[in-house]
Amino acid sequence: MIEFIDLSQEKPYQVFKDSYEHALENKQSAIDAISISSYNPELSEVESRFVNLKYIVNDEWIFFSNYASAKSKSFKMHPQISAVIYWKKTNTQIRIKAKIFKTAEKFSNKHFESRSTEKNALAISSNQSQIIESFENIKTKYLETLNNKDLLQTRPSYWGGYSFRPYSFEFWTGDKFRLNKRSLYIKNKDNWDYYLLEP
Amino acid sequence: MIEFIDLSQEKPYQVFKDSYEHALENKQSAIDAISISSYNPELSEVESRFVNLKYIVNDEWIFFSNYASAKSKSFKMHPQISAVIYWKKTNTQIRIKAKIFKTAEKFSNKHFESRSTEKNALAISSNQSQIIESFENIKTKYLETLNNKDLLQTRPSYWGGYSFRPYSFEFWTGDKFRLNKRSLYIKNKDNWDYYLLEP
Question: What's A30's DSSP letter?
Fold first, then answer.
């Protein structure tokens, strides 16, 4: 589930909300799964991974990550990303382009405090995406953290939210024979330009 | 559904096949939906979209597209892409990095001939991703093409397959408290180096 807080009244946000509710009514599973793609200019490589989208606060889309992970390095070097969602139950695809930045610390603290101790222990203990010798080492490190009450009290500085603010939305709905409906919204100063696209 | 033809015997392909069959047994829907992300160096932008993965022929992963579409331009300028699949039913994510190129014409012809006339009419009639005035125009153009028997006989040169050949695979399986299992395979000449990653 995505939590909406003071959602922007701008048109593509309202279209998104309607589309989300429609998917929810149709019992779409993993409705908060979103693929985030970044570019690493040092390696000249595009990389993608699914994350759980947790919040949309006004026009900020928020998920959580380790700030020393490979994706965090790419976000820093190239703060433009793409995001894409596909909801099978309604045959809807939402394509986004956005600028990404770290979420305000206060918000990350609040979210950290709302999570289970078990999840937070992993956020603290893991050097996300580093190569390891064995899965057993990970488990040992995890269990040690879980037993360290002091460590568990505070959000570590290397873990928190990423916020992205879209400047382009495409809403795609599949239709028979691929006569798909495609609507594009592009941010133009304070407005959103609207276009229809060929299927 | 993905059609496997003479699938590579190399390790990550066999891991993929097992993972696919496991998801299929668990009745995963949209099992062939894969997010493809590309980089446009002119715009310095990452872009993503879902496509239907149709075939894996040995080590070539194949989907079909309009060759004049926005993504085709990005593939030409920057032939490295990322691909990602998420199967909710088995809580499995597969992350791929690959080089992309046009599929052999013979193969594209064969696939075009295997498709329904209704789908091919759209492949012929659509200038994919172009801005349009109204959806009615698209429908009219589509229906005109559908009635043109001559046009429908041959695959147009602007539509065909894209093949990508992975050089990196990550298999990710979600576990409780985010103690996820992550295995990385990286192509090293004719072999695949194998690593475990921190969750």
Answer: S
pLDDT at A119: 94
Subunit contact A29:B88, Cβ cutoff 8 A: yes
Q: d(Cα B45, Cα B162) in Å, to the nearest integer?
A: 21
CA distance A134 to B181: 11
Contact, B72 vs B103, CB < 8 A? Answer: no
Is ipTM over 0.90? yes
Chain A nearest CA to B120, separation (Å): 8
Q: What are the φ and ψ backbone dihedral angles of B92, each rounded to 5 degrees?
A: -120, 135
What predicted TM-score, i.e. pTM, was given to this entire model? Answer: 0.96
**How far is A82 from A96, CA to CA, in rounded Å?**
6
B116-152: pLDDT as tens digits: 999 999 999 998 889 998 889 899 999 999 999 999 9
CB atoms within 10 A of CB A125: 22
Give Cα B82 to chain centroid, integer Å: 10
Q: Any idea which residue has 């050949």 for tokens?
A: B165
Cβ-Cβ contacts under 8 Å for A79 (sequence gap 6 or more): A99, A100, A101
Minimum distance, in Å, between the CA of residue A122 and any CA atom of chain B: 7
Residues B49/B39, Cβ–Cβ less than 8 Å: no
Candidates B48, B129, B132; nearest CB to A37: B48
CB B87 within 8 A of CB B28: yes
Q: What digits encode the pLDDT tens for the residues B47-69?
A: 999 999 999 999 999 999 999 99
Q: Is the CB of B30 less than 8 angstroms away from the CB of A133?
A: no
Pick the CATH number of B3-115+157-197 from 2.30.110.10, 2.40.50.100, 3.90.960.10, 1.10.3210.10: 2.30.110.10
Task: Please give the residue of chain A at the shortest CA–CA distance from B175.
Answer: A119
Nearest residue to A187 (alpha-carbon basis) of A101, A61, A96, A104? A96
Residues 6+ apart with CB under 8 A from B134: A196
Asked if B170 contacts B197 with a C-beta cutoff of 8 angstroms, the reply is yes
Contact residues on chain B for A139, CB-CB shorter than 8 A: 179
Instruction: Report the amino acid identity of residue A15.
Output: V
Q: How far apart are CA A149 and CA A153, in angstroms?
A: 7
